[in-house]
Amino acid sequence: MYPLVTSCAAPSAKTAAALPAVTLVDTAGQRTAFPDDLARARLTVIVFYADHCPCFRVHEERIREIVRVYGPQGVKVLVVDSEVSATPAGDAQAASERGLPAIALDPGARLADALDAEYATYTVVLDGSGKVRYRGGIDTDKKVLHDDASPFLKDALDDLLAGREPRVSEGKALGCALQKR
Amino acid sequence: MRPRSSKSSSPRVAAFAYGLAVAALVLVPREAAAQACCAGSGAVTPGRLGMHEDALVALQARAAHVFGSFDGYGNYATPRSGDSEQDFEQDAIGALRLPGVASRGQLALLVPLVETRRSAKGLSESGGGLGDANFSGRYDFLYAGQNRYVPGIAILAGLTFPTGRPPEDAGRPLATAATGIGAFQGNVGLSAEQLFGSFLVTAYGIVAKRAARTANGVSTTLGTQWTALLAVAYSLPRDCAVAVSGSYTGEGNAEVGGVEASRSSRRIPILGVSGVVPLSDHFRFQGGFSGNPPIPELGKNQIAALAFSVTGLYAWY
Question: Which residues in chain B have their CB less than 8 angstroms from residue A4's CB?
């Protein structure tokens, strides 16, 4: 296969200082203040969402699994909608109908811009200090799930929770382009 | 991008450039739900990489039947009794995305084999060989769908090499062994594309300049060529897509021996329909029909043909 992992080197050192001081409100009414609230979880996984993206849709099953497996281990999963057309009502309906975690709106795509999010399914793992520990795709799948896909996000979480550096710290996100403006 | 310039006796002129453009329009279909998943659509080469694709290889086959021609005054005529022509082409295509910060850029190489079967003046012959190879590039400053109001914008550039056999070297009465124009051709263009629900609208313009060449001891320079194209693609479920499109190619008078040759300019419209059917995330087929409307005045110094093309493509991402 053509090189899919764009880099195995440490991701660019986006730290808490680089994160915007924004507060996202999700469809369950929960507020997450960046970067301060990051310290309340061992790790925070941010998954960028696009309503009609088929690439995101096929990955919803894997996102639910991440929540189920890693939530009890102190990992917070935040699905973020940075698209200009996003509405609280639309996201609430999507989260409810599709069994997703509550979706947080990112007005002005400030968080997406700060984390270089360009595509749906793009995922960032932040530690309690706000440092980016993994960025990129959830796995190597695009619109069809394969059993032999490389589970970038899962591997990164396993490594980080075990106190190791992620074996792959930057993967390729294969989702739809986010319409942020 | 490959608006291949006129082979003096061939209908492939703008038709081929058009075929490439239209086929590529649906090369990477949009998602049915109108998200900007594959907003890299709307291309000007079948070798265009879709969003997230890093490389591809493709084989394209094209067949065309000539059903008429336009003279230097724009008059349209059907072939004389007994005259006929069919043109065939097989292209090997490869494309590669640039690495790192230049990843919005991509390069493509197209190497054609060209065959012609022609009957005229009581003669009938066939010939062919390696055509003019093309190297092209594209850089997307913005992808379609990333902004509600600003379309995706890309610049295009290409260089065609005279690797084919020019008409003066064809060595046969009907010149069926001619497979190229015998000159370098450089072209630049601008592409704009935007999503409207499940529709992707693409427009582009390309200007091509041909280098001078010497044929039979006389210096000849083909006129500057321009091509404008408008196409609309519609995304269907399962990543299939269909497109309709139209283009118009014009070319100024040629210079022969330093003197402008009057009434040597050319123009030709092309209309077409095309589609794409993916078989997997990596492999897809595309194909379509295109033709030159036999309407007087719309064409000039060109042959009118109906063409069919099909492409099999494997991409890595």
Answer: 317
